[in-house]
## 1
Amino acid sequence: MTDKINHIGIAVKSLEQSIPLYRDVLKMPLETIEEVVDQKVRVAMFQTGESRIELLEATSPDSPIAKFIEKNGEGIHHIAYQVSDLQSELNRLKEEGVRLVDQEPRAGAHGTRIAFLHPKATGGVLTELCEECH
């Protein structure tokens, strides 16, 4: 079961060009910028109420984000729902026959564990399940 929307991921060509809109114009506090090497992406996370906006910039032309932008242009990439026990949630979804991108949790940005559900199982929306590790 999901607890809340953790964040909305937005694919951008350049963090440097995109950050000022969210930080300066929309007045969202910038929490962190970090690179997730194994996903070939740099991310900037902004707080907005109880949720966040995650900007995603590819660090390699073969990155999933680079391929997404090439095909679709910049824009919403995924919605992430927070769960308290990611492994249990994945097990439940497998039992329900939900198509998964990730069969097991993996490391995500900002010290989280994540797994993606296949867009064909979620009405065309790439859906991330996110467990915050403290």
## 2
Amino acid sequence: MKQEGYIDGLVSVIMPCYNATAHLEEAIESVLAQTYKNLELLIVDDASTEPIENIIWKYRKDDRIRYVKHSMNHGVAVARNTGLLQSKGRYVAFLDSDDLWHSDKLKQQLFVMNTRQVAFMYSAYEVVRDTPDNKINTIQVPQQINYNGLLKNTIIGCLTVLIDRKQTGYFEMPIISVGEDSATWLNILKEGHVAYGIQKPLAKYRVAGHSLSSNKLKMVKGTWRMYRQTQNLSILKTSYYFSFYVINAILKRI
């Protein structure tokens, strides 16, 4: 288990992918276009059947990019954990292979993080359907959130997160099918950290038009299980926090 020896100033970007040839190059370019240049990008291929290597080959001369391929499909949580274990940076961020960052995402977050000495940053983000310009909604976020607040509203988008591992210590994602990212943030905040948000959208979360209804139902069921399994909440407490989650999910309208 990796505990120390991270490179100060380096941001490790973890990008899990599975059969993501349609949007992978666009996601990679949004990382490489960051105005903050001290970064590494770990692309973890979760045993894709599509020719992901053909896209990665275009970036073979960029030593900031590392490509790791699983021999078997394990799911997104395991893929992210592979990236976490192999990453070298003090700071860690996540971007899925069909999502995008604004060019100053890391620069803005690092400025606030270092100015205020906080361990956990997130931001608002846009939800787009299929193409980056087809915006459905903007997910607004609070200026800060603690453990109890996040239980009531799983508002933190994984694609917006930046974490200082020098302050949080080693962490990894629980191996569950839904809500592994929210469970991770809850585990970090449970240790007493407070997460701080930038209210300007710094990323774009892409959804496919045909998958919206099925994804919402899956998330609702998975969030209940996540509360019970990873946070060890009683049925009474789960019901209490889950009621807030449902209300806030409706307000987000996604």
## 3
Amino acid sequence: MNIRTLYIGLAVVIFAGFGCKESFLEVNPQQSVSNEEAIENIGDYESSVTGVYNWLTDSDYYGRYFILVPDVMSDDVKQNSQANRAKEYAEYVAFEEHFITQNMWETIYAGIGAANAIINNPKPEIPAAVEDDFDQLLGEAYALRGLMYFDLVRIYGQHYGFTADASHLGVPIVLETDTFSEPTRNTVAEVYAQVISDLTEGMNLMSNTTRNGNTSTLSAWAAKAILARVYLHMGDWANAQSMANDVIENGPYALVDSAGYIAAWQSEAGYSSESIFELSMTETDNRGSDALGGMYNETGYGDYLPSNDWYSMLPNGDVRQGLVVEDTVLTGDFAPFRLAKYPSNTGENNTVVARLSEMYLIRAEAAAEQGGAGEATALQDLNTIRLRALPTATPFVGAGAALLTEIREERRRELAFEGHRLWDLMRWEQNMVRNECTSLASACTVAYPNDRFVLPLPANEQDANPNIQPNPGY
């Protein structure tokens, strides 16, 4: 299915359809009402926004593949000898007809379409008493759209600094429900500008607290945290540091301590003290072994394992060693660890999208990149994360290039298996090197720059849209 087909359905869907992927795409236009008729009160808006979140929890998005694919393309993950899911991406032989390439594209654009329907819907007559509630929901729709475009442009486009002015191919920006649209691809610079605009608008509309008392919905703080990440990927160090600093110093979050670190990841309850935004996964979302945890766990598919390259970076006694368990079945190249960061095979572990540890590492990297007096901030933040993981560790005291290298390594240790590593390698313009390579020889070292660091555009999108340009190298 291509963008045009998706938007034919989006143009006519009633608000109840936002809550379910199947009904969302199977609406009969002749039997449906317009968006203007569908969203008439604050309850309709809330149901519609809930539907956008449901697209994010889909297994073709944050429910599995959006986290898994960039990680299996990195040096943090190795394949089991029996790996049979996403292996084309791990081995850098993905192709335009592959179902992951297609489904991820469709799912994220469907979520964008659902957000567009909310944003573009005429504001209903609502009592003054719920005006703030309306603004909160509208702000969430804007911020979710910004996040979805940020995710799309990273997985289907090269990183922001790939060209000096970010004029290389991004993804189509579709803001209207135009059933006859056959859009061209916008530049990466244009997509990032839209991302910043949407997240900023969302931040300004939302309050600092969430609607439901936990972090499964967005707040102004969550939008600011995502903006910190966006600016980091742009190399806009001043804004990245400013946004992360505000979240750290003024937000309602606290780092999980060393004693509670493993439990925070393995609890199905979720929502630790450092959670800024995480997607709720419950029994009703049960995906069986198709959940993210099922890709790693021995009792699931168990296709992927933490690499020894990554594990060897952890000093003895580092609390993060508890995120892996010894495997007594695998032998040879595939021994000895399994990942325990997502212990539920049925997908009942929430997917963490943003957390406070990342904000410390963003502030550290951005401050170090700017040098000078900022290095003191960078050192403090680096050691905050370093000593939380191993309280007996010797604080790092380096400066300059050595400091930046250590921050990058700490980022790799702390954020592993959360979908960051490949994009970090890209924006740092580094080769992907698997010293412990259990895959095809051609995928043991992938040199930067490389066309294959990004996914191909789906074949069905290219077939249906004569204006879409394919990614080079496919």
